[in-house]
Amino acid sequence: MTVDTLFSWLGGLIPAMEGSGTLLVIAILIPCLVLFLVVAVNAIVMVYAERKVAAFMQDRVGPMGQGVGLHAGKWGFLQTVADALKLLTKEDIIPEKADRFLFILAPFVIFIGAFVTIIAVPFGETIIVADFNIGILYILAMGSLGVIGIILAGWSSNNKWSLYGGMRSAAQIVSYEIPAGLSIIVIIMLTETLSMQGIIEYQAGGIGNWIIFANPFTFIAFFIFFISVLAETNRTPFDIPEAESELVGGFHTEYSGMRWSFFFLSEYANMLVVSAVAATGFFGGWHSPISGYFDSNGWGVFWMLSKIVSLIFVMMWFRWTFPRLRVDQLMNICWKVFLPISLINIFGVGIWTLFFG
Amino acid sequence: MSADQEKLITELVEKGLAGDMDPINAIEDRVLRSKAKAALAKAKRAAKTATTAAPTEEKPATETIAETPPSDNPNKKFGKMIEDTFQGSLDAELNDTHIQLKPDNWFEIAKWLKSEPSLYFDSLQCHTGMDVGENMLEARYNLHSMTHDHKIEIRIAVSRDKANIPSIEQIWRIGDWFERETYDMFGIFFDGHRDHRRMLLPEDWEGYPLRKDYEVQETYHGIAIPKVKVGWE
Amino acid sequence: MGVIHGEEMVLNIGPQHPSTHGVLRLKVKTDGEIISEITPVIGYLHRCFEKHCENMTYDQVIPYTDRCDYLAAMANNFGYVVAVEELMELKVPEKVEYIRVIMAELQRIASHLLALGVYGLDIGAFTPFLFMLRDRERILDMFEMTCGARLLYNYMWVGGVSHDLPKGFVETAFQFLDYFEPQIEEYNNLLTYNKIFIERTADIGVLPADVAISYGVSGPNLRASGVKWDLRKNDTYSIYDKFEFDVCIGDGGQGTLGDCWDRYYVRMLEVKESVKILRQALAQMPKDGDVHQALPKKIRPPKGSIYSRTETPRGDLGFYIESDGSPIPTRVKMRSPAFTSLSVLGELAGGWMMSDVISILGSLDIVLGEIDR
């Protein structure tokens, strides 16, 4: 439920503080804590899933164990928990000549960039923390905050390699915002609203109404959007900033322990958000594919999560299949291929809507 | 060597010339066996030159070139061509295995070897250094032609104190690294090499390891170097 | 492109780095992302192989040759043993020849699989690496079945081999070949014709044929530049003249002739040719024969010297051996193919970007053990 409903519900609960500022703050904090848990659980599950998916695609088994307390838990479920414990107990090494304040600040900035966007993601009909009327614009805008964090990380490490990684990453993310944004414009043209719930309502009525099947231009727009957000979250084939074999670790070379894990927490949070945006914009959000059936609030959460999970699975699939692109080829594709196609898409959708209604 | 042993060796050599190697191989005494084998090899060589020398005795020796029939062996053939083109560059007699050259105009000879159309040695296959004893070091070049598919070996001997050979790294570009390695291991200086420094050992290493009289230095940057165990072979 | 020069940065790649294939240091002068000059610095793995050889007998040298190119140890053994046998004018029984060819070709497949897999890994494709290693494991299992070792075998001895083929080896080998041939198609689908891989490797690091010959480059690197030169055909040793196989050369399939993709593709083609040779050798091999029959009691080559070459997975391996009639060689010089391949890096990498240097280095397929000895 949104902050507003929570606020009024709490007001009803504690009439003495109804309408007060402290209640508002509490009404804001509770969903944020829940979201924080969501992000944490998401990271744990996705790290485990990534390792298992990678293993099965590479003809091996991945992390395995015999049961709770024995190795990594049955089927290796407790692997991520073990990793997290290990990272927490690691020595915190800050290079001597590194800019201390920025070095410590950088992971937090990246995390903030990812976390702040989750509040606008609709998980169900009434399950959304803040139903902005500019929802999708807000997500795109706040998602770009992460770039600052990456540049800070690269710069403050006082390491040529990290600097390279930070610069490349910044160039990449900033460039790919444009095709992503233009593809979102295609959606907005059809739904005539920026609000996330509004976009989902437009697609009510079953799978035929989903925007991805509305016209061929939106179909193409989905692919452009999906590949652009792959680049924004630094996933292969666009993971040049993290390219192990070239720059050792890219912008997070000098980080160790929990600070390092923050980068990956943010990456997975980002993946969650962009998958949610894709699911909202193109796949009908929390609507079920068969209109009328499995349509309640609870089912809504199920449909939304399954769409998000499938898209995340595709992202992982890409990572273990494709080699990575060189940085100038990446930029080439963005500016010379995706940008013209996105612009053509916009025209196409406009003309289509004009003629076919 | 006693008279007995000499007689035994002559017998074994005769048997060996007839093709029977077993008596020689069956000798227990290592020294005697090696002497027998050396004598056999010498006898074989003598027999060969005797057969090649025999037919030419019938012809009057008018020209020195026709004394021995033109050899198919590439070392002899090309050694002759080198001698004809660059007088006085051969350092020893022509033979089957290699061409011995003097270091003086090696660069010009090398350039000619690479560019001359009938030779066209475009590939320097291997470059070895060798400590041949008697205060001499040698550099050996194995050249090969990809187009004509013939190969020769060239050896250049220099004295230990003045081990200078012209560098051919501009002709065969692999010479760059090969010569650096030979310098590193043997201490032969290649005049004209544009980047003359050690290859495998650190820049400040002392001595040239593959020379037979090489003594390992005691310490390197303060770390004591362990000695080779005595009598380990 | 406009000329805006930033300051030149001198970077160091290695000696510890995931993709320098060993302990190799590259001093790189860059101007932004473009490399202006690259200098390899080697010697970090120098173990004085040649000096050791002057203190050991001829057969004691063989385990040392294993450790030079540790990813293709059979081929090193083969090269050395062929050289010593040529010097001694020793003939080996036919069964031994066949076993040697079988082992050498299996080693060629194993080495190429590793080279190709690691190249994919450098470019960023994780999965083909694991698939190729899985298949390489089956070859290593066969080696282990024969001589007990997976990586460093000491298998080929002067005059024979150390162990005869165990029972069931030929069946296992045929099973492996039947399983493996369709896998090559899978690799082609996954990596070779992948658009991103082609973009990362085609037209990059073009090596012209005359530069290659001048730098002494040999093996797949030379053949990818269009030069039809394979020692198994041009300078035949052992019994390679009994088998029918093609010499694979690059043809500029995706981009220029002699680029990284060609070097990758030639290796892939060579794997197919090795499978062909293996099938013929396994079928024609005589069933009985004593592999230890021609081992000499004492290896004493006559006085003289010899330079003999064989074709290893990385190129022409040459051994220059000088003997003075005693059981201990006077000089053994190992002319390694990776040494010459690495020397051409300075020429190839100027003007490319950092990622391309990794790409070029991977395509040359070097092993530091061989370069430094």
Radius of gyration of chain C: 21 Å
Helical content class of chain C: 40-55%
Q: List the helices and strands of chain C in order.
A: EEEHHHHHEEHHHHHHEEEHHHH
Radius of gyration of chain A, CA atoms, in whole angstroms: 21 Å
Extended strand count of chain C: 8
- Characterize the overall form of chain A: globular
Shape of chain C: globular
List unreliable stretches of 5+ residues of chain C.
Answer: none
Beta percentage of chain A is under 5%
Describe the structure.
The complex is a heterotrimer of chains A (357), B (233) and C (373). With 357 residues, chain A is mostly helical. Chain A has helices at residues 3-13, 21-57, 79-88, 100-118, 135-143, 145-156, 160-191, 196-202, 216-232, 244-247, 257-283, 297-321, 327-356; strands spanning 65-67, 70-71. Chain A has one domain (94-356). Chain A is 67% helix and 1% strand. Chain A starts with a helix and ends with a helix. With 233 residues, chain B is of the alpha/beta class. Chain B has helices spanning 3-17, 22-25, 30-58, 74-85, 106-115, 175-186, and strands at residues 99-101, 123-133, 136-144, 151-159, 164-166, 189-191, 219-220, 223-224. Chain B is flat and about 60 Å long. In chain C, the strands form three sheets. Chain C has a three-stranded antiparallel β-sheet with strand order 1-2-3. In chain C, strand 7 and strand 8 (331-335) form a beta hairpin. In chain C, helix 5 packs antiparallel against helix 6 (169-192), helix 6 packs antiparallel against helix 11 (260-284) and helix 11 packs parallel to helix 14. The N and C termini of chain C lie far apart (44 Å).
